[in-house]
Task: inverse folding
């Protein structure tokens, strides 16, 4: 059976691949949305922190023998800790200024981190092995799906939805949201707002690092992996509407799917389709699909 | 090792014997090694090429007792034509550089070739792939060493089709270089009785080739041709392994793959890959001896064919200077075309009128992990393509220097 | 984005600006005696690029993270005009400027709809689109770029292959555009722009159509960035993808930041500093990126006024 001239097998296969890419877009834009939505900081360093996650996983494997599962926990913590340091030392001073300074600072930090790693590791990329339990493929009948990629889809869905739940449906999340709206009032109620902000930044950064660890077995671990993906993620966040958690999750997966379909029907455009969509969304609904005009 | 020093000495002695001092500008022959020192090609070229050039200068002077003073400098063009042409201009205009060597990344190579011509200096390119350097963009001040897209397409394409790989599916990086590689290889495949059953253009650069590889798998072509380079190639190979494509009976043909790429991929992922190079450290005693010397000076990393090419081209360059008694770019280029080449790395060859250096090419297959005895022991030789067949024949060249 | 420069009061501040301007002209006119002229031409092109960018950021308060698209597309247009159509260089530069003006009209119309960070993100994403477009479309030559671009003969008889002639040409363009920007900043239009930057709602309540003003500023900025790009492609006889890559957009932000946002001479100084640093540290490879990142961070944290801004602050004058 053919869909638009493509055999059903190939079509379903591409959709699944699109979902996998969408998982990474969703994870990364989730981290960005958390940081922006709650802190009003544009974290340009997000791409570099994603790369850091992958590198810490690689380095801890080669030097300390830390396996993938431990890395999934260790790397977000380590990189998240560096995020906390960045926030305490640098970002904190910029809150009272125009938000664009935060953008410029994180841009500069991204350059520094990327430059340092490029110096140390070159650009070729390091191999990172797929964890043994996920080696091999599922034969789904219409494609051979590597087990690891299936894991990626499931894991990112779980992480995204639980993050959304915590922020939108729990008391802690309510405090966070309140603190963004009116920090002094919330602080007057006895809640340590600056510490919450720091930890939230650390959490967002940790999410990026987690995405990096999960990406390591699929893509080569190399210093430019963050720079390549960060602009696409920004487009995703603009389309979804910055500040809406659910918006970025849905948009991330959705755009991954659309990009996957474009690769089937018109591969030359697959790099630009997300930006084209962004343009269209901006014309029709400038606040983003799920955003509210702030 | 002794044998080749003697060869060099013998040839050089003929030119140096009884000859007056070469009229060298500023008294020094200054060679600028311009390449990628920090990016994608830093392992294939990079600091290693500078080392190779220095080795060549030392070996030549020691063997020929030439009175030449040679200085080697290096710079990073970051794979950008504007950075590269800036450095080249400054080198030629104010820094007294006489010859620029190496230059990977075709866009930069083309720019440097033009500048060398404008200023009457010399460019000996070992790193760029484009066959246009000896085709429509050729000039009297540019010589193309080591390899080009025509040789890659013909070497890999023809040899694979002849050995049974007659249905092809192309994964092509969607930019000029990828298109050229695909076009040239397709022509060769079809000419030799093969068939191209499909092709897909991948955005350049791409991290995730999964959907494209799936299409290749579905096409059931015996050979999946990778018309891409650098990170795209290594990513597609790595992901092909992940999808079990080679286990399913299809073979990958890497149209532009270097030894350091295979090293970073690991044999487990790259095994069975077919590729063409014009130099491999383990080909014969001479290449082995030189490569061990090189590795000792290069942090244990074995040479790529580009680095070997820098060594070989600098040797011939210095020989030509002594023979021509000058380091004027245009005259030395002419002399390099006059003298036949013979060095321990590429064997016997010539530099043709269009600037193309010809030497034999080799089709390799990457070993399985079990077949390898140690690091860098990666290739098994499948076929040798003689020098007169490996490169585009002069009759097909659209270089204006070639008289038809 | 609020400016950090001191605000001038009426006419008292113009005299010293003329002095600094004369100084700048003198330096640029004499420097080629000691410094490699091609390097100086590069500095001037980037200085113009940064000045154009600063018009939008420092005076208009709009951070565009995609200005490379104007630099690069004009460069391609001018290169094409010179190489394929054989036009004289002055027409090539004009053509490049026109093309980037049109592009900035389209981009601006889309981007102005949002403010602040969203504006920056949109310009970044649109410039990525332009990058991919330039990568694929055949006339740009993709990775190779447009090479061997002839410099041509100015007005048909001044041969620009002579570096001295070319230098005078570039200097003239730079000074003309600089004066134009100066004029724009100190015109009624410039005043309204500053008002919009300081408090957009108040400007609207005074009856100004803020969107139109912002768009005009965007187009002027984009057009002049195009002039810089077109001139640059003639100087180097090459138009390449580097000029449309987003890292180029980051560099012009850095130049403006280092030099001093919202000052007239800041971008010139900033461009000189950054281009010099890149040139002389080129052999250090990726350390240049690290150095640039560190400078970014330091400027944002501790040095927001930039070099010229600090000097202006100390002298309590506007520069």
Result:
């Amino acid at each position: 059976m053919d869909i638009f001239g493509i055999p059903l097998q190939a079509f379903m296969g591409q959709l699944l691949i699109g979902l996998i890419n969408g998982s990474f877009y969703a994870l990364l834009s989730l981290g960005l949305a958390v940081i922006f939505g709650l802190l009003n900081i544009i974290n340009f360093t997000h791409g570099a922190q994603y790369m850091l996650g992958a590198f810490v996983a690689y380095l801890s494997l080669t030097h300390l023998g830390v396996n993938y599962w431990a890395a999934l926990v260790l790397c977000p913590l380590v990189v998240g800790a560096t995020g906390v340091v960045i926030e305490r030392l640098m970002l904190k001073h910029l809150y009272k200024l125009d938000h664009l300074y935060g953008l410029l600072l994180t841009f500069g930090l991204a350059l520094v981190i990327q430059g340092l790693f490029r110096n140390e590791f070159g650009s070729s990329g390091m191999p990172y092995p797929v964890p043994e339990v996920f080696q091999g493929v599922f034969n789904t009948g219409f494609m051979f799906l590597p087990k690891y990629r299936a894991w990626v889809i499931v894991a990112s869905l779980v992480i995204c939805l639980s993050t959304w739940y915590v922020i939108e449906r729990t008391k802690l999340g309510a405090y966070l949201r309140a603190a963004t709206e009116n920090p002094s009032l919330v602080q007057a109620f006895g809640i340590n707002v600056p510490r919450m902000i720091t930890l939230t930044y650390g959490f967002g950064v940790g999410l990026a690092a987690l995405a990096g660890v999960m990406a390591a077995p699929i893509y080569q671990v190399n210093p430019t992996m963050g720079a390549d993906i960060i602009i696409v993620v920004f487009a995703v966040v603009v389309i979804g509407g910055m500040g809406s958690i659910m918006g970025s999750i849905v948009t991330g997966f959705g755009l991954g799917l659309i990009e996957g379909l474009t690769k089937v029907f018109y591969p030359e455009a697959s790099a630009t389709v997300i930006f084209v969509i962004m343009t269209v969304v901006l014309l029709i609904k400038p606040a983003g699909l799920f955003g509210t005009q702030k | 090792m002794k044998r080749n020093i003697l060869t060099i000495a013998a040839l050089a002695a003929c030119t140096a014997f009884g000859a007056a001092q070469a009229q060298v500008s500023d008294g020094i022959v200054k060679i600028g090694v311009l390449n990628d020192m920090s990016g994608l090609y830093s392992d294939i070229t990079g600091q290693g090429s500078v080392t190779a050039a220095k080795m060549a200068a030392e070996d030549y002077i020691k063997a020929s007792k030439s009175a030449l003073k040679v200085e080697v400098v290096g710079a990073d063009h970051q794979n950008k034509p504007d950075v590269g042409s800036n450095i080249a201009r400054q080198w030629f205009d104010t820094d007294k550089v006489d010859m620029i060597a190496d230059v990977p990344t075709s866009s930069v190579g083309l720019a440097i070739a033009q500048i060398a011509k404008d200023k009457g200096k010399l460019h000996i390119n070992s790193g760029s792939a484009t066959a246009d350097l000896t085709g429509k963009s050729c000039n009297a001040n540019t010589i193309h060493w080591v390899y080009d897209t025509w040789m890659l397409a013909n070497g890999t394409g023809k040899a694979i089709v002849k050995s049974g790989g007659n249905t092809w599916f192309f994964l092509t990086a969607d930019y000029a270089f990828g298109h050229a590689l695909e076009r040239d290889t397709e022509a060769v495949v079809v000419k030799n009785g093969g068939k191209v059953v499909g092709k897909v253009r991948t955005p350049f650069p791409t991290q995730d080739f999964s959907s494209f590889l799936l299409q290749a798998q579905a096409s059931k072509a015996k050979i999946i041709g990778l018309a891409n380079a650098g990170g795209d190639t290594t990513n597609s190979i790595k992901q092909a392994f992940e999808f079990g494509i080679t286990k399913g009976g299809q073979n990958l043909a890497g149209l532009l793959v270097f030894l350091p790429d295979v090293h970073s991929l690991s044999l487990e992922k790259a095994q069975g890959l077919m590729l063409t190079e014009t130099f491999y450290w383990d080909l014969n005693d001479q290449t082995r001896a030189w490569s061990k010397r090189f590795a000792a000076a290069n942090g244990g990393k074995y040479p790529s064919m580009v680095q070997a090419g820098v060594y070989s081209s600098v040797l011939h360059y210095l020989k030509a200077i002594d023979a021509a008694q000058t380091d004027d770019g245009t005259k030395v280029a002419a002399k390099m075309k006059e003298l036949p080449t013979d060095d321990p790395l590429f064997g016997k060859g010539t530099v043709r009128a269009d600037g193309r250096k010809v030497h034999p090419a080799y089709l390799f297959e990457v070993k399985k992990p079990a077949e390898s005895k140690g690091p860098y022991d990666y290739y098994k030789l499948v076929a040798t393509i003689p020098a007169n067949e490996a490169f585009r024949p002069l009759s097909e060249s659209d270089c204006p220097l070639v008289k038809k | 984005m609020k400016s950090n420069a001191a605000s001038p009061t009426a006419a008292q501040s113009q005299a010293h600006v003329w002095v600094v301007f004369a100084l700048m002209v003198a330096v640029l006119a004499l420097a080629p005696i000691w410094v490699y002229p091609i390097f100086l031409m590069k500095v001037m092109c980037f200085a113009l690029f940064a000045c154009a960018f600063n018009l939008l950021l420092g005076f208009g308060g709009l951070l565009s993270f995609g200005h490379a698209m104007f630099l690069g597309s004009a460069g391609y247009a001018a290169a094409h005009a010179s190489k394929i159509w054989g036009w004289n260089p002055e027409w090539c530069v004009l053509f490049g400027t026109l093309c980037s003006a049109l592009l900035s009209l389209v981009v601006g119309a889309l981007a102005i709809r949002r403010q602040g960070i969203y504006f920056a993100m949109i310009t970044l994403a649109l410039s990525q689109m332009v990058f991919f477009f330039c990568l694929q479309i055949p006339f740009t030559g993709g990775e190779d770029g447009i090479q061997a671009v002839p410099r041509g003969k100015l007005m048909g008889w001044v041969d620009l292959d002579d570096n001295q002639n070319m230098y005078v040409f570039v200097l003239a363009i730079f000074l003309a555009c600089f004066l134009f920007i100066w004029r724009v900043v100190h015109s009624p239009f410039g005043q309204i722009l500053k008002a919009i930057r300081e408090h957009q709602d108040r400007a609207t309540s005074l009856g100004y159509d803020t969107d139109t003003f912002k768009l005009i500023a965007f187009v002027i900025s984009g057009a002049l960035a195009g002039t810089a790009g077109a001139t640059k492609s003639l100087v180097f006889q090459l138009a390449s993808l580097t000029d449309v890559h987003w890292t180029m957009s980051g560099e012009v932000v850095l130049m403006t930041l280092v030099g001093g946002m919202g000052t007239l001479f800041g971008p010139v100084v900033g461009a000189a500093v950054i281009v010099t640093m890149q040139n002389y540290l080129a052999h250090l490879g990726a350390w240049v990126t690290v150095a640039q990142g560190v400078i970014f961070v330091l400027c944002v944290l501790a040095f927001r006024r930039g070099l010229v801004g600090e000097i202006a602050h100390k002298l309590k004058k506007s520069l």
Q: What stands out?
A: Chain B has two domains: 2-147+284-358, 151-277+361-389. Chain B has 14 helices and 15 strands. Residues 287 and 345 of chain B are 5 Å apart (CA to CA).
